[in-house]
Amino acid sequence: MASQSTSTPDDFNIFYSLHFLSRPTRPPSSETVHLEHSKHSSEESNDETNQPYQGLTGLRNLGNTCYMNAVLQCLCSISPLVEYFLSGKYVTALHKENGEVATAFAYLMADMWLGEFECISPEVFRSVIGDLCPAFTKKTQQDAQEFLIYVLNELHEALKKSYKRRCSGNTSTSREDRGTVSETSIITQLFEGQLSYDISCLACQTTTDKNEVFTVLSLPIPSESACSLQDCLECFFQQDTLTWNNQIHCSFCGTKQDAAVKANIGKAPKMVIFHLKRFDYQGSYKRKLGTNIYYPLSNLDLSPYIYPLFRKNPKYNLCAVVNHFGYLDGGHYTAFCKHTLTQNWYSFDDAQVSEIPQSSVQSAAAYLLFYSCKAFSVPTKTHKY
How many angstroms separate the CA atoms of 70 and 38, rounded? Predict the structure, then answer.
């Protein structure tokens, strides 16, 4: 990962303003980016709920940036996340040494949610992200799932707080060992879940457990023709046998042994994101799976996969979808998002935003699925930038 800049949020605010001042002057249009509503919206007489494009703002394509636009639209549809930034709560949590991404994200969410323009440009956010990961500034198609994970990680790093916790048995996580220190942020509070793996040695039957945190669950697709999301989940959570090069070292036997592994959800997140593994890589062979996957729009039941002691919120409702059309080395990304105010579904295709019937949300192009276990309230802005 590229080294991070040490400029402060105040420096970024100056950069953000100068960036637009230096752009060619043009009359207001559907592609104009403007920050005055972010600075003075509390002084406006119009009520925010009357804004014509509130949460329905298109994003201009900057050259193969449809992957970024689709992900940003889905994040903008997650009200608790948007309100955290609109309210200004992020400011007190912000780490100055790496706060540019979070600050740019906050301005972008304000521009997208406050609804003054039919379309805006994510140019500044893309520039800030590109300073850390230059691949996202190239005019080549990138993977939406990789971009999503990168953005969530950067936001977490900028907003995290540390606290002491007790160690719980013989467990480990996918992150670096933090000892008795854990980290929390708005990202972990909304998106982070925990997988619990039961690992049984097939020689001596000794069972150990391993914990791993996740923000996105990558699900295998068990069929090339058609299947359901439940089929994908059952395939992911089925018991596997580790043999040959995948054997475990059994501490009881003292040697490597075959083992049985079974995963459960030890901690279910408030927001669960499923990545459907449509891109199949086997050595030099690559392909995209065009499987039509049925996924429910409401009442997704995750209780069969949640560890019995933690089955508190097993039912989830779909709130956003990232679609991928086309083939492995090309194609186009769009998003379907459920609007908090109207409770209707909308298609976001870069600058184009249109209402769609609920029946159209089921798509053979679905790539990322965003589910929430709680209903969203309408985000409000209570902070002056």
Answer: 23
